[in-house]
């Protein structure tokens, strides 16, 4: 039973796994390539890119990349060359929320961009809202006399499972300041309904191996048509190849896996309301019965749950064993709590049913009682 937030949404359905065996070899999708990965029809990557994913993500243009972080870099570096080096009309700066993922910041550093991070509401909610972005955007304009290149919004973040307050207002504010907008949806695309078109941003990024029931590494980059024209410029020497993608990206099994799981993904995102209800049931019982404290927004709206667990930490000190919680959960067939972590733990209830959630809660209670009794 997997309760790890970074793994729970990437479990490949059993019905698909056996069919993937013939694509284990290198370059397994390239036999009928016309010179562009995204135009291959056998297997039908072309349909995946031109029909299935644009509909699923609400994007005009979609490309496969090796992961969300590669998508961030692709966007940042392309826009840096266009707007900082060539036009000079944007500051070499991105604005990120205070809960952003480290890989997005690394992508910015690799693109020679400065990072301005918003404040959050702080402990214990760690919320990010319009006022935090407004302050950060204004600081960039004041210092550089130009808007930041990109404003990045995590939806939701991977630390607390928080959604930003008033995301459309944040996107509108960034646009008014002249900044592109990018949504990091690594924890939402594939788990819940998400549409770039509805959110009215320029770019949206998903992680197939994190939230789209897919083998990896594989990410998806969705774009508005106008924004895509700046990112997907073709090579002068090799006109069939898009420069920022280095021609072809995911040339094998992960791309085929995503083709095969698309019908399953369309069905499962319709269950999102039930997923959230179950996550709330879990954390409410965990707080009430086990003395855990949920960090992040309440009521919570995602399956990623971050708890303060002082009782388990106290037991680890008494036993002089930081790994006791991990070991006890593993004995009970529960995998995902990081080894050696007892002061704070992150869990996901994604893909679990009510009976399984009860089992996890009962196991935590049993371990707590066992530790307190020693």
Description of the structure:
Helix content is 43%, strand content 13%. The chain has 2 domains: 259 residues, Aspartate Aminotransferase, domain 2, CATH 3.40.640; 103 residues, Aspartate Aminotransferase, domain 1. The model has no long low-confidence stretch (mean pLDDT 96). Helix 3 runs parallel beside helix 11, helix 6 runs parallel beside helix 7 and helix 12 packs parallel to helix 15. It is built from 15 helices and 10 strands. The radius of gyration is 22 Å and the shape is globular. The longest helix has 20 residues. It is of the alpha/beta class and 374 residues long. A hairpin with an 8-residue loop joins strand 8 and strand 9. The chain has a 7-stranded mixed β-sheet, with helices on both faces. It has a 3-stranded antiparallel β-sheet with strand order 8-9-10. The two termini are 27 Å apart.
């Amino acid at each position: 039973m997997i309760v790890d937030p970074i793994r729970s949404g990437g479990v490949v359905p059993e019905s698909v796994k056996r069919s993937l065996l013939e694509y284990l070899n290198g370059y397994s999708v390239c036999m009928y390539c016309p010179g562009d990965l995204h135009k291959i029809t056998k297997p039908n990557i072309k349909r995946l890119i031109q029909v299935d994913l644009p509909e699923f993500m609400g994007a005009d243009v979609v490309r496969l990349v090796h992961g969300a972080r590669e998508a961030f870099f692709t966007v940042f570096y392309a826009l840096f060359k266009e707007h900082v080096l060539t036009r000079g009309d944007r500051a070499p700066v991105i604005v990120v929320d205070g809960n952003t993922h480290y890989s997005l910041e690394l992508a910015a550093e690799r693109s020679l961009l400065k990072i301005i991070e918003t404040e959050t509401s702080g402990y214990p909610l760690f919320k990010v809202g319009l006022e935090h972005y407004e302050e950060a955007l204004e600081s960039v304009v004041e210092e550089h006399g130009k808007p930041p290149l990109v404003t990045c919004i995590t939806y939701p973040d991977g630390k607390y499972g928080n959604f930003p307050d008033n995301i459309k207002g944040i996107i509108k504010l960034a646009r008014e300041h002249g900044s592109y907008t990018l949504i990091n949806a690594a924890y939402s695309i594939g788990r819940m309904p998400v549409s770039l078109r509805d959110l009215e941003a320029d770019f949206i990024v998903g992680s197939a191996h994190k939230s789209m029931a897919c083998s990896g590494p594989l990410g998806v980059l969705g774009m508005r048509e106008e924004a895509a024209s700046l990112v997907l410029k073709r090579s002068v020497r090799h006109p069939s190849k898009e420069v920022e993608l280095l021609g072809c990206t995911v040339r094998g099994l992960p791309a085929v896996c995503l083709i095969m799981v698309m019908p399953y993904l369309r069905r499962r995102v319709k269950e999102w309301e039930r997923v959230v209800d179950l996550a709330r049931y879990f954390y409410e019982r965990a707080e009430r019965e086990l003395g855990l404290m949920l960090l992040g927004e309440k009521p919570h709206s995602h399956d990623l749950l971050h708890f303060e667990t002082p009782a388990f930490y106290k037991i680890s000190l008494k036993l002089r064993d930081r790994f006791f919680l991990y070991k006890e959960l593993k004995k009970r067939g529960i995998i995902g709590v990081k080894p050696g972590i007892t002061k704070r733990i992150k869990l996901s209830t994604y893909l679990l049913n009510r009976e399984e959630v009860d089992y996890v809660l009962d196991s935590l209670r049993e371990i707590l009682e066992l530790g307190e009794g020693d």
